[in-house]
Structure formats: structure tokens, C-alpha cells
């Protein structure tokens, strides 16, 4: 099977699992993704697929770690730096040594170097996995901060120790002294390379900003390739590529204030691109675990051993997982990492730090990065190591998912979803009233109001029958208004007939099926071409035709100028909670129909002025409600962010309102 097709299917599965995650609240997203991968494994050609292990560190881990570093609060990291390195280096190294010897005792048939490789694989923690398990729980801030900062650096500790173990297995030699120096060189060398190259990339971006070349088409690709380039460069010097991208991400974080000088569009596009990419990569790895799991089980059970050995590997995974929890608990209890916690909460927080040592993407990626072939032969015990690592991952996700909801209260906010909806509706209605009070052109006013109402996030779709009933009443009102204009002498009977024919034609189009509409359009274009051919034969002056067309359009525009404001007034008068979606749809229909026959160069300026005033009034409303203490500061910040996003969308797409 083509690798491109395989990756495409995995990405589709990741998107689908993310959609399921919004509906399935009792399972962590990672578990849903693993189950999705298991389902894919039953598809022919998927159950024996192997992805090149070298792809993982470069294509997946490097950008994920860079993004984590970039989003780290550097002030909080400095405040907890000693605890972070205690957990990320001290605890990680001790855990690898103890679990390595325990793994060798439980699996005496594997080389001790591979036992340490297994320990290095299952030691790193994953802050993303922790967040997926605890997102609806009120986890203490200090505990969550410690877990996040620990996961930022213990990945590198695990990867360095993993590389040392594999090197020892390949060569058959191991020197403790050389290994310590090698560890220090790889660890701190990676930090230095990442710091230097990351600083150079930041200077490049600042130079582009100063020279007004901070276009998203330039900045976003540079930021996208940055982790890959830094990782490869660090690996060229035999240092830790992972620590290099973490250091570069931290440099990016420290320079965030200066980088804010770049355009809003560039910042929004960069942030959104990275969020989508990292979300896909995280899901990609867990789905790949589900896809590969049956193959691993099949290979283990067909290596000449009894099926009972599979059960023993599960038991080994359970024992190693429990021992790692105990080591983590003792580490913080013995104050080897002195975390600022109130004495009354120490036992709870220590337990939370111990049980939330959840393993995820890094563990899985290291397991899959074990070479498939060594010296022309299948790498020994590769499937055993992957299976045990997968067991530890699943346990570390399931156990907290079961235990934590029993220990921690649900996360509380200073506002509810109902508060968000209520005050957002009030805010937009406040802005709409100010737009009405501006007493500008009715059509342009309705265009702005319709856009503002679209911010209210009305999810229901207009009902077809209800829409046509209201629309028919509008058509009846048009006929009445036209007749009144004829009776008063404002328009001729010919103009009335022409307008009604156009109105009837568009009404008929609304009721057509897709096939009918397609056939009508084909017939229309055929007739249009025939008329062109006849004009060429008769040598009709095209300027005469254009003049006649312009006259017809001008006549329609004059009638529309009289009728449209009264139609919009009728729709506003009959707007209620039950027909909001239908009324909005009909308003859009009339607005677009009216615009086809207008040629008002002032329209865009009017709309731009109304939009700017509307957004300013929304900000004023939030400030007013905050001053009266009707809303909390957190809710105000959320509303401010929504208005800011709406404003940015308008500024980037103002041409579509013109």
C-alpha cells in the first residue's frame, strides 16, 4: 500500500476520532484514538503495515516538543527551575536505573541493555495526555505546573538514555564514566545548539518584521520548518535534537513580546497552523498504536512461544507501572523536589503528581523508533518492548481516568455556558441597536446587521417550509407595493411587469431541485450564446446592447430602492425566537438580490464605518457590564477575545461585504 494513502487514512481517522471525542466524555481522547486504530487494523493491507521508525523523532516529536517549549510560561519555569530539573533529570535517571534492573529481573531472557532501553521508553511523561485526562477536573495549579514542566525536559532524558542503551546493545560495550560524559554532552550540547539556532531564527523573523516582509506566506513556512532544521542540525553534532527544539521553543517564548510586532494576520495564521498540526500529530501516533497493536500481538504469539507469554508481558507492564508510581510518590514525599504546596494538601498533591505521570506520544514514538532490522536480522525482542510500552501507556491513561474523578471535584468556572450565550446575545443586540440608530442607508445597514447576527452562533438551520411561507408573504407584499407605485404614477406598467417577471423567476429558482437548476442554467447559457451569434451575423453594435441592458438594470435598481427597505422593515417586525434562522436567511436573499442591481461606490465605506462602530460598541458593552459587576473578569476576557476574533475576520475579509 502506498505510504501516502496510508498516512491520508490515518489523518482522516484522527479527524474522525477528534469528532467522537466531543461526544464521548467518559474516555480520554488517546483511548478513543487507539480504539480507532484497532478498527482500522481490520482493513486489508493495514494489519501488517510498518512505518519507518526514523520518521517519528523528526516528523512528529520535533515539532511537538518545539510547540510545547514555545507555549511554556518562561516566568513560571524560572520560578520552578530547580524542581523541574529534579523531576526531569534526577527522577528520570533514577527511575530508568531502578526500572531497568527490575525489568531485567522480570525478563531475564533479554539483554540488560534492552531492559534499560525499555525503562528509558516508559519513563517520559506527556503533558498533553495529562490534560486530556484532567481537562474537566479541578487539578491544583502547582501540581499541573510541575507535571507540565517535567514533561518538557524528561522526554530528552529518556531519549538520551534510550540512545545510550541501544548503542551499548549494538556495540556490546558499556562504560559508566564515558556514558555520564556522553549524557552531559548530549544533554547540554542540545540545549546550546537549540539556544543559538533558535536565537538566529528569532533575529531573522525580527528582521523581516522591521523590513515589512512579515507576510504569512513567508513567516509561517519559516516557523514550520524551524523545528525540523534545528533537530537535524543538533543531530549532526551528536547532541540531543529534542532538547535543541525545546530550547529553541523557549527562546521563541522569551521573545514573544518583540514578535508581537508582526501583523495580526501572521500571528493568527501561525498559531492556528501549529495548533492543528500538533493536534493531528498527537492523534496520529495513538491511532498508529491501535493499527500496529494486532501485528505486535500476532508476531509475539508466532515466535515459537505459548500464548500465555502474552499474559506475562501484560503482568510485567502492570508491575513496572506500579513501581514507577511508587518511585514518583517517594521522590516528592522525600522532598527531592520541593514543590510549594500547603501542608494540608501535601499528601493529595504528592499522590496526584505520582499517578499523573501519564505516558503518551514520546513513549510510543521511542518504542516504534527501535530498528526493525539489526545486522541484517530482525531486531530481537522489539515486539515485546513495544507491547509492554503500550500496556504501560494504556494503564497510565485508564487508571487516572477512573481514580481522579473520585478524588477531585469537577472544574468550576466563574461563568456558565448559559452566561456566555446570554451576554453574547445582549452584546450583539446592543451593537445592532447602535447600528440602527446611525440611520445610514437601509440596505447597507441590513448587511452589517446580518453579519453581526451571524456572530450569535445560531446553530439551527432554517426550516424549508417555514422559510417559503415567510418568503411568499414577502412576495405578496412586493406585489402590493408595486401596484401602489403604479397607481401613484411612480413607475409604469411595463416596469411593474419587468420587475414581477424577475421576482417570479427568482422565486421559481428557489423551489428548483439541483438537476432542474442545472438544466435551466445550461438552457440559459445556450440561449445567451445563440443571441451572441445572431448579433454577430446582424452586426449589432454591442454599445447599443450594453446601453439597453444598463437601462433595464437602472429601472430595476430604482424599484429595488423603494421596495427593499420596506421588506427589511417587515422582516424585522415579524422577527421572533422561533423564526430567527428563517428570517436571517430571507434577509440575506433580499440583500444579495438587491445588490445585483446596485452600483453604489459609497456602499463599502458605509459598511466599514458601521462595522467599526459596531465592534467598538461591543467593547463598550463588555466594559460597562464589567464595571457594574454583572460579569466576571474571566467572562469579560472571553467576550473580548470573541469580539477581537470577529473584528479580525472582518478586517481580513471586508471585500466580501462590499
**Coarse morphology:** elongated
Helix proportion of residues, in percent? Answer: over 70%
The N- and C-terminal alpha carbons lie at a distance of: 49 Å
Spell out the helices and strands N to C. HHHHHHHHHHHHHHHHEEHHHHHHHHHH
Radius of gyration: 33 Å
Low-confidence stretches: 542-549, 653-658
Question: What is the number of E strands?
Answer: 2
- Report the portion of residues in β strands: under 5%
Strand order of the largest sheet: 1-2
Main sheet? 2 strands, antiparallel
Number of helices: 26
Instruction: Quote the average pLDDT.
Output: 78
- Overall SS class: mainly alpha
Summarize the structure in words.
The protein is mainly α. It contains 26 helices and 2 strands. It has helices spanning 3-21, 29-40, 54-70, 74-79, 81-106, 112-122, 127-134, 141-171, 176-210, 216-236, 241-254, 256-259, 264-301, 308-333, 346-355, 361-368, 382-407, 417-437, 442-454, 464-487, 493-510, 514-538, 542-573, 580-596, 603-627, 633-652, and strands spanning 373-374, 377-378. The chain has a two-stranded antiparallel sheet with strand order 1-2. A hairpin with a 2-residue loop joins strand 1 and strand 2 (377-378). The protein is elongated.
